[in-house]
Fold each of these.
Amino acid sequence: MSKNKSLNLNQIFSKIKLINILKDENIPDWQRELIEELWKYYEQFENGIVLWSLDYISDLVKSVTEKYKEQIEEEIREGEKGEILQ
Amino acid sequence: MSKESTVFLQRIKIRNWAQYEDLELEFPVPQKLDEEMPIIFFIGRNGAGKTRLFQAIRLVLFGETDSAFEGTKDFFEFFPLKKKEQFIKKLLKGEHIPNQSILISLTFKEITTEGIICLHKFTKTFLFSNFFLRQKEGKINLQYKEMETSIKYHYREPPNTWAEKTENEFKSKINLWFPIETRDFYFFDGEKLNELMVKNQDKKVKFINDIILRKSDHYKITQILNTTKTLQEQFQQKANKIKRKNDLVRQSQQSIKAVEEDIKNIQRQIKSTEDLIYKLKKQQEEIENKLKELELSKEKVEQIKENKTKIQQFQEINQKLQIEYTKLTNSLGDNSRKIYDFEWILIWDVLNEVLKDLEDKYQKNIIPSKLNKSMYDVILARKRCICSKTELTEEQERNIRAERELAIDERLNDEARRFLELLKSKREAIPEKIQQIIKHREECIKHIKRLQELGDKPSVDENQEEKFIQFMSLVQEKTDILPKLSAAEESLKNLKEELEGMELVKQEELDLLVRRKAAEGRIEDADLWEYVTRKTNKTLENCRNKLKEQIIQYIKDQTGTTFLALIEPKEEYAGVYIDDNWNFGYYMKDCPNIPIVGENGPSKGQYHILGLSFLHSISGTTSCKIPIFFDTPLGRIDEIHKANIGKNLPYMFEGTQVILFLTGSEAKDMIEFISGRHGYLIKNENNYQAKCEPIETTEYDIEQTLERIEKENIQWEQQIKETKIIVEGD
């Protein structure tokens, strides 16, 4: 009896993941980092290591913003320019 | 179901449910996720109790025995018949029946990807009390008065002891593992699959949405988004609040600026007013200096004023006198004429009277004709002369006088004399009148002369008058300046008051600005945070949508792949058709563009395979793998497909616990699949007390068992027929 590989769903379905979608997305570094941090935090929560806290996520957003402040500000300026041009 | 884990049914415990008076089964389950997943199957003859076991599991988990359950079922119907019969006998003897219960308990083992093992025990008990008998249509029935249902959920995370959870936690856990829409798929009834695939459209759509929602990453994104969206709103509110505060600060700054501008304007106005006042005062000073230079005392000014008035009065009088003088001069001429005329009027009157008298006399022939005639002629001539108003020449006058003297002849009669006397007296009165007029005239001339003397002599000297004019113009100028000055001073006062007010306003605004500045926030940061969360949320939503699309596409593709693996003859089929509403069909290779769907679509057998393929594809999408229970999995499909499904089933549900309830013929068709697995034979020799015994599962042993089942089936059918004959015979 030969094993029908196309019926092994675990291998196929495991590819449908956020991480794989993010790879294809053209998103800025700060967004990628924030999403990864959020993801890590969620997994910690899921594993019962931490409690879910809005304050913690707020701090996360603030620290990423601080780290990439110039890049984000540049992005906003570009966005505003784009809006004006439109 | 966010954490990835696998759930297995580890133990079943049943008391007093249908054929099962007392059943306890412990299934082999893996200790780790990478261990091979044991497949469990039950076989037994018809009526042995396979479906009752299947229903018992559903009843504990969902409170229903099947999807058509309406929730009003009397579960005492499932109480073992043999026991019921014993109770009837006891009650007939007057014995007491103690409280009885149906108990079903399921223990699930959950292993997470991190290797954490948990145990979940779900127990449902129906407690019946106060039994009595009721006779109905000639039969005696056992009844109860009260029924209590208890639902228990115990949780254990070894090595800890069991902890009791609430009924709500029981329900939420079951709903998490087996959402309502998924139950008919996870409790797969081959007999009903066709119906499920064709009719239950809403269920399918809900089910797929539920699968997507529960897909691990999709679920995680949703959970994260729930928080980050709240956060975004908070940042938005914060940014707005700060914006509002900063707007207020800007408003204050602008109003301070406006007030300062106003103050500047007022200050400019004050300056120009002050300049004006200065100029006016200077002018006033200059005038006063000039007035001083003129050195005119008040008395002098008064005298000059008086003189000026007098001059005016004299001039007026002079003018009047001049008029009067002219009048009088004219009057003198008139008087001369009047005198002359008066003389002649008198004569005329006398003449008229004489003439009238003469005419009368003449007509009466009283007067001698000679005198009459000559007199008459004289009078007529005089009359004509007067009437023509021509001046009489001296000669004419002499003639008249001579005629008059002639008239005054002795020969004149008395009447002529009286006339002459009258004439004389009247004439004497005339010079008197003339004399009066002449006198008046002389007086006038005299008066005129006096007036002329007065009018021609001014009493003020010219230099003084010039000075006076200059003085008066300066005084006027000074008088004109005064209202201007007082208006300017008034305006200055107002402006200063206004300035003071403005200063106060400015101070108030400054205070407000200080307060507002104290509350001013860092707008840039709140805006940035809002932007960051908004953009991240958008990306996460995009990713979630893509995940959803990929999951749906995966389900459709995988259903097609599985269908093509199971369907026969393979060479005729091109793939599966699934529309957006999850209507199923397929494509044939001959017509690869036309889907076979709807009323002329798949046959019941084809739907069965489509349903199995669909179930297979969705079983791969859940992050938590839960057991799948198949009752009569092969249903109404033909031999070729049975073999095909049997061959592929081990791979289709790899990693998932599969529990099969097989008829003898299904077991035969799937013998290749079930050999070497964990098999149980449901034995029910007297049709009341079923038992599950583990069996050897080599192909040979299974075949032997199936042969036994076949024999039992024949015996059972025979037994039923005999029972019927006995019942009918009674």
Amino acid sequence: MSKKIIYTMVGLALVFFIGSLFIFLKSSTDSKKKPRDVLDEEKSQELVIEPEFKIVNIFFFTEESRFMKPIQYKIEQPAIKQELYKKFLDLLIKGEENYITPIPDGVELRGLYFIEKKQLLVLDFNEQLISKFPGGTTMELEFIYYIVDNICYNFKEVRMVKFMVSGNECKVLSGHIDMDNPFYPDYRYLRDE
Amino acid sequence: MKNKLTPVAIILIIIPLSLLSLSINIRSSDHKGYTRIVFEGDRGFEYKYDQSNRGLEIRLKRKVELHKNITYFSRSILLDKVVHQLDNDKSVLKVHLRSKFKIKRNFILERPFRVVFDLVKSEEEEIDAEPEIKENVNENQPRKKKRELIETICIDPGHGGSDLGAVGSLKTLEKDITLKVSKKLKQLIMSKLGLDVIMTRNMDIEVSLNSRVSIANNQKAQMFISIHVNSSFRKSARGSETFFVSLKATDQEALRLSQKENKSFEEINKIAGDDELKMILWDMAQNEHIKESSKLAEYIQNELNILLHTRNRGVKQAPFRVLMRAAMPAVLVEIAFLSNYYEEKKLQDDGFLDDVVDAIYTGISKYIYYHNSMYR
């Protein structure tokens, strides 16, 4: 056998060996990688669905009943918790067609602060809350518990709500209920159908 | 001839008429060691009496006329009320007493004709017989706060002046209705129960919530009734409701603190140096009267339900600023809804307001009867 033939055969064997080794290594790396990718994919699906939206129930007053009735909403969940509260409050202030919103026209939320240690949410409304409040004990209670019950029902980390007006302490709305202290929810106003 | 006959005719008419009607006035007074009850007739009358444990039944041989069928004696220590009933067209006067009693003496006085009973509490004699035992018991038990007979009531007409309160669609103002009802209620309480009544406002002026309660506290009123007219975002809401104050978060915290430390609010007040705690304690003035306030609210609401035939919204609790600092039983009455067209029309009717006043008055009377019957 000539030397030329021997070199060719050794060369081919070497190419075959290197090729096989490459294919083996590649397949072993793929087999290790695959389950992790699948897991990551599942995990990423979880992250997409759960944190981006929050399902909330907002209870509204109706003419037919003194209890509030719930409507479900899906709120896009922002990264900061307080922004979520703000979005929720905007829904409460906006109200719902064919339902009663016990908030006077022109009332806006100026700011809100969550004091985690006390589980207290402080809401600061504009001056219209006092100047445009029509008066009456039941009106005051309807306003207070529409806000407090809805917040505490949907956000378990909030145990009580305090009202402020234009950055100052709010004593009374229209001469009845004492607004000095925070309010706990009173779920007697809710009717979950 | 005609002139001579006229006086004779008048006498002939008057004599039989006067024989038919007899009017009796009842009054009572407490004296050292006994309570006197007097039945004063515009002429003489015959009577018999029977005595039971807590009552005295006086049977008359004819029908008499009384100003009221039930006469309450809210200020009397022993006497509760006298009820006038008819038995075979003859009058029976049932005297209800607050405790067991004995008749010390019974006699008749003339010009004007009076039947007098002097009554003594039979329990007092038992207490006198065993003074030492009673003292020992008192030393081992916590001293109960002395109950006082109700003599002064404070009525608070809600809103006033530039504070209009609720306004109806027919432009009825809450501040006007509350003043009208309060004035009528004051008149009724003074004339029928003979109690002192103070008002937080007598005219259309603005009075702050703190001043209202200060008036009641400073005058040492023993009952605080705030009169209001309701309003709701729901136009269909209707009916009357009576509120008493609810414990707030801060009150509950201070109450828990006082219980934990086994100290009275007064003791904590002495120890407390910071203003915040003092404010909490000041807010708690109503705490020790919550039970009585609840009872008073219940009596008034029951009468509103019966007399007004409005929807019963019941007795409720809420943190009312005007009630929280009242150092006496205190309630807030919401007569009806100005936001409801039909109830606003009713509120414009004086007849309806008179019914409201009657209902509140009866509720107050029943509460006073309950309160005084607990008085020892």
